[in-house]
Amino acid sequence: MSKTVKFIFCVIIAVVLVSAVYVFSMSKKPVIKDTFKIGMIAPLTGDAGFVGVGMKNALLMAMEQWGDGKYNYEFIFEDDQLDPKISASAAQKLINVDKVDAVVTVGHAPRITFPLAKKHDILHFTIAVQKDLADGVNNFTHWAPSVKLNGLLVEEMQKRGIKKVGVFRTTSLEAWVAYMDDFRDAIKNTDIRVVTDQTFKKGEKDFRSLIARAKPTNPDIYLIFVETPELEIVARQIREAGINTPFTTLEGFEVTEQPELFEGYWYVSLDFHINNSPNNLS
Prior knowledge:
Blueprint: H1 3-25, E1 35-42, H2 49-66, E2 72-79, H3 84-97, E3 102-105, H4 109-120, E4 123-126, E5 139-141, H5 146-159, E6 164-170, H6 174-186, E7 193-200, H7 208-214, E8 221-225, H8 230-240, E9 247-248, E10 266-267, H9 270-275, E11 279-280
Parallel strand pairs: 1-2, 1-3, 3-4, 4-5, 6-7, 6-8, 8-9
Antiparallel strand pairs: 10-11
């Protein structure tokens, strides 16, 4: 991932976490205690470790810039390695053992933490695209909703005359499933159709049989809904199969360690949502 993309990503995370700390500091709970405990669940190791490490560093940097305030803040970081079982254990530990006042989550952890935040009446601030993960009482999200991002994706496809879409996607992470569901809804009243939909689980390394099934459908573009490292493996194996069809996605290209695989391809991200103009890696 380029230094520019990493910088932008860290700035976004810093904004999210500063906002979270502000919400936490405005709650009634700190009135009765001097120290406010905030837990964070994110991948700190493994293939997606750079995401969690960026979040952790951004949080610490944000608090350093925040300076002295009315309360002391204690941070507890849990590495879930983007594994839902570890996410569940981490959430239970932070809430029942560490007795945190608030939790910041990403990946699998938001869905797991949502009911626990309501049950234990703590604040939960998440980076997630699913609108049902916010209730405005205990649970809050800070990201562009999947519905809006898919609306922009379909709008751009129509401008470019794209009618046939081939999909490669994981079913292991809820955010990607939500993206696909909302994409299908977004194309219902258009002439865009999904001509092939190839699904797989996280950890898959050989996509050649899926690619062989998708190739005869001859899509105008391949929509890839998966995180690193499967993102890079899928793209590389598609090219090795002699297929030159362009790629697109929602956000995924900006957190790749191999941007050269997606050089010149447009995609939709939070920045697209803000500026209403497509990103391009070229």
